[in-house]
Structures are given as structure tokens and as C-alpha cells.
Write a structure and sequence with these properties.
alpha/beta, PIN_dom, ribosome biogenesis, Rossmann fold, 6 helices, two-stranded antiparallel sheet, rRNA processing
Length: 198
Amino acid sequence: QGKQKKARKYAVMKRMISLRDQRINEKDRAKARVKKKEDPSAIKEREVPQHPSCLFFQYNTQLGPPYHILVDTNFINFSIKAKLDLVQSMMDCLYAKCIPCITDCVMGEIEKLGQKYRVALRIAKDPRFERLPCMHKGTYADDCLIQRVTQHKCYIVATVDKELKRRIRKIPGVPIMYISRHRYNIERMPDDYGAPRF
């Protein structure tokens, strides 16, 4: 009986010596990890985000007229395309006074878009719009809006962006305003516990 030939396997990795191997010099060796003994009497700390006091199940008690509406860049652009007056259409949608709010990030985003969006910039600089200053670095408006509605639940977010809408839906108690069929519509406005239905 002959010796069976073994074919060498293709792209086989060479075995590496572990850093704890005895053959490696003492100074180059990896130090063995020492497990800390857990003190059973010590208080275990976990960081849990505090539940907002304004929410009564899904009903947000901070939402009420006059409504503060955070406006996104694309919402202004789509409003211009649909030939809608921003403030008037918001009031027609909610049957109450509306204060459109614009953050520095959204303003910066519109300014970056250049000459093509000068009408949107002029609308954004309307004195009826409330300007909200941003303290963070960068001008990524989506993260800015998410951070703001997570901290303060008193806003309705006006956007047409699918990705931003998906992120906002995960935050309880924040309604979304969007454009469809040449008019403004509201999504997820609470209607239980005697709240107004829209």
C-alpha cells in the first residue's frame, strides 16, 4: 500500500504564535488579564434614559396651540413646488395658530444649496419664522432635528424625507407633518384620552 498524496489546500493561513507563548521574550509577551472581583454590596449603575414626564402613554401633553413646527429643508422646497403658503397651509391643517421654527442647521443647509434655492432662503428668512440657535458642531440638519425633538417634545416635525420620518417614528409623542395631494397632512397626532383628532 502506497502513501496517499495530500494536495495542499489553497490560501491556507500560516499558524501564528500567540503573544502569550513561552517562546516569546518576557518583555514582548502580552500580560495576562487579571479579573476584578465584583463587590456584591456595590450599587450597580446603569444609564437608562429618563422617561419624559409629558407623555401619558402615547398622548403628549406638551402639544397644544400655538403649535411649534420644526421645518426641514426639503419641506420648504416641496411647498414651493406645490405652490403652498407655508404658514397659511399649516393653520389650515391644524385649525390653530402655528409658529414655524427653523434651526441654524436647516438655514445653513439652504444657504449651501446656492442660487437655485434663493426663493426657499427668502421664505426661511420670513419674520413669522422663529429662529432656533444650534450649539453643536457641523450642519447636518437631520441629526439636529432628531436631537431637538428627543430633548423637547413640544414640536411637530415638518418633513418629506423618508429616512428622517423613519427615525422620528421611533420617538414616542412626536407628530410628523408632510405634503400629499397638494396639501399638508399630519401623521401620528394623538386622538385618545379626549385629545383633539385631526
